[in-house]
Write a structure and sequence with these properties.
This protein is mostly beta strands. It has a single domain (3-64, 71-213), classed as Galactose-binding domain-like (Jelly Rolls, Sandwich), CATH 2.60.120. 3% of the residues lie in helices and 37% in strands. It contains 1 helix and 12 strands; from the N terminus they run αββββββββββββ. Strand 4 (63-64) and strand 5 (72-75) form a beta hairpin. The longest helix is centred in the N-terminal third of the chain and has 6 residues, at 8-13. The radius of gyration is 16 Å and the shape is globular. The protein starts with 7 loop residues before the first helix and ends with a strand. Residues 1-44 and 50-61 have low confidence and may be disordered.
Length: 217
């Protein structure tokens, strides 16, 4: 079955949710997504911005050098999920590195769960432990079905930083930008839970950026 044709009409028919803007979260990565940010609403729920990925975007080094005294921005270096559509194409490892999906659609260069319409999770790990300030989730197909985001500290504790209801976004790719304030722990990874029941189709994740400060811990 050609998954690229599944539920395309359904997604286009759904009303787009309001999207916040992301402030050049990937300005340090040549050929990847660019956008601008606003503050999250008082509810604490982050918002998303639809932005078109340039054709031919390619992955780069997972960690960018910080400005003097500034945070580092890094992409995941490994990933595991409770299910994946393939062992290579659409696998959890497709969500590592910088965004490399050329356009919105059902492409093999993003993570997809084994089945559509279900609740699934993916965990990503990073090269450098940081005190987190922001998480940016690049969704390349049927955003935004992310219902929970947890940060994994360096002793394997989980900290919920985002919860939400699955909603269809009218345009994609989208960056779900989640600010993290006052974290008193050092992050080693991120766990993302998606609920695909809203669209009964795959919600695919191309890349996940972790932003934060290096500490001595």
């Amino acid at each position: 079955m050609n998954r690229k044709l599944v539920a395309a009409i359904l997604v286009l028919a759904l009303v787009a949710i309001a999207c916040g803007r992301v402030n050049e979260i990937m300005s340090d990565v040549a050929g990847t997504l660019e956008a601008t940010t606003v503050e999250a609403p008082e509810t604490g729920e982050a918002t998303v911005e639809p932005t078109a990925a340039p054709a031919g975007a390619t992955a780069v080094a997972p960690t960018s050098a910080p400005a003097a005294g500034g945070p580092i921005r890094q992409w995941a270096i490994s990933a595991a999920a409770n299910s994946e559509y393939g062992t290579s194409d659409w696998s959890a490892m497709q969500a590592t590195g910088a965004p490399d999906t050329s356009d919105c659609g059902d492409y093999v260069t993003a993570w997809a769960a084994a089945t559509a319409g279900t609740e699934e999770w993916i965990e990503l790990t990073y090269a450098t432990f940081v005190r987190p300030t922001e998480v940016n989730i690049v969704q390349s197909y049927n955003p935004n079905q992310v219902v929970k985001v947890e940060l994994i500290d360096n002793v394997s504790g989980y900290h919920v930083i985002y919860t939400g209801e699955p909603k269809a976004v009218g345009e994609c790719p989208c960056v779900l930008s989640i600010p993290v304030e006052g974290a008193d722990y050092v992050v080693a990874g991120i766990r993302i839970t998606i609920d695909q029941s809203a669209v009964q189709d795959w919600n695919e994740i191309d890349a996940v950026e972790l932003v934060g400060y290096v500490t001595e811990e």
